[in-house]
Structures are given as structure tokens and as C-alpha cells.
Amino acid sequence: MSKKCYRFFGGLLTVQKNWLNKMAEKGYRLIRTGKLLYEFEKCKPGQIQYCVEFIGQKSKANAEDYHDFLEEMGYSVFYKNINLNYSVGKVRWRPWAEIGGRIATNTTTFNRELLIVEKENDGKPFELHTSYEDRANYYSNLRNPWLLLMLMLAAFATVNRSVILGIIAVIFLIPVIIYQLQIMKNRHEAKMKEW
């Protein structure tokens, strides 16, 4: 018997990861995802751990290679959307992405911006990025979309003298600052821990 839950987390990756891990602690293992759907089956409580990875900057080939690499490491991996979009034939421009990932379509990485990675709980923290440099690069990939949106909104707010667009730009500045602090912390740690 499966359990279906409908949730939307958007770009709140930590919230999504924490929710999935709480479901695992209650004895539910992820078996399928949809736009809003998370389908679970019963398992032993605490048997599974989850990590959520943003891959929206990757080209289709690199995203598939990374997916395959994680599966070869023994993890179960699910693609997940970061946005809600129910139209067919959409194209999204991602100027912060690598060259092959700047144009996202239904046949590439559109609605496949996240990977939910599952592993057996061995009592150790589950992290996909273990080096400080790797973490700093990952946080850069998370920061860049927010930074672009914030800069665009700030420019539109200035040109149109729009207070509302200015307020939205300031709101988008919050994740930029959070991720930038993580980048700086990890770069500092990398310098401090050099061998």
C-alpha cells in the first residue's frame, strides 16, 4: 500500500530535504515523484536518508551523467521539478547555466532541475558535496539564478520607478546573501584546511 502526498517546495531545497527525511523517520520510502506528487511505500523507520540536489545549471548530457554516476554509487535517484508549469512546449533561458544547459526545453532539463537522492541510513550525515571547494561551487550554482532575477528586477524597478518591483528585488536579495555567505564560509574553510 502506497501513501501519496502533494507538496510544492519550489526552491526551498533544505525544507524539501528535511520533509523527506521526516517521512523516512516515520517509515516511508519514496518510490515516485510528479510535479506535486510524492509517492511513498512503507519501510523500516529511519532506514533511508535523503538529499536534494539542484542540477538546473547542467546540460542534459551532464545531468544524465551525474544521475547515472549517483546510481552507480548505489543511490536511488529521482528527478524533480523546481517550478510548477503545466504547459507543453515551453522553453526556459538560463543564462547562469553551463553552455549546454542555457536553453531548457521539455526534451532537456525543463521540469528536471532537482535530483532527490536516496541512500540507506548508515548513521552518518548524508552529503553529496564533501570538499569545501565543491560546496562553494554548488552554492554558487544555487546563488546565480537568484542573483540574475534580483538584478533584473532591480533594473526594472529603477527604470520604471516601481516600488513593488524594488521590494521584490530586495526579497530576492535574501537567498543571494544566504548563498553568498555559504560560498565565503566554504572558501575560507578551504584555505584554512589546505594541506
Task: Show the helix and strand layout.
Layout: E1 2-6, H1 13-25, E2 28-33, E3 37-42, E4 48-54, H2 60-72, E5 76-80, E6 91-93, E7 103-105, E8 114-120, H3 132-160, H4 163-192
Antiparallel strand pairs: 1-3, 2-3, 4-8, 5-8, 6-7
Helix pairs in contact: 3-4
Give a brief description.
This protein has helices at 13-25, 60-72, 132-160, 163-192, and strands at 2-6, 28-33, 37-42, 48-54, 76-80, 91-93, 103-105, 114-120. The chain is α+β, with helices and mostly antiparallel strands and 195 residues long.
Task: Provide a descriptive summary of the structure in words.
The protein is an alpha+beta fold and 195 residues long. Helix content is 44%, strand content 22%. The chain has helices at 13-25, 60-72, 132-160, 163-192, and strands spanning 2-6, 28-33, 37-42, 48-54, 76-80, 91-93, 103-105, 114-120. β2 (28-33) and β3 form a beta hairpin. The mean pLDDT is 87.
Tags for this model:
8 strands; 195 residues; three-stranded antiparallel beta sheet; alpha+beta; single chain; globular; 44% helix
Main sheet: strand order: 1-3-2
- Assign an overall shape: globular
Content-based structural category: alpha+beta
Number of strands: 8
How many DSSP helices? 4
DSSP helix fraction: 40-55%
Radius of gyration based on Cα positions: 18 Å
Strand content: 15-25%
Give average pLDDT, whole number: 87
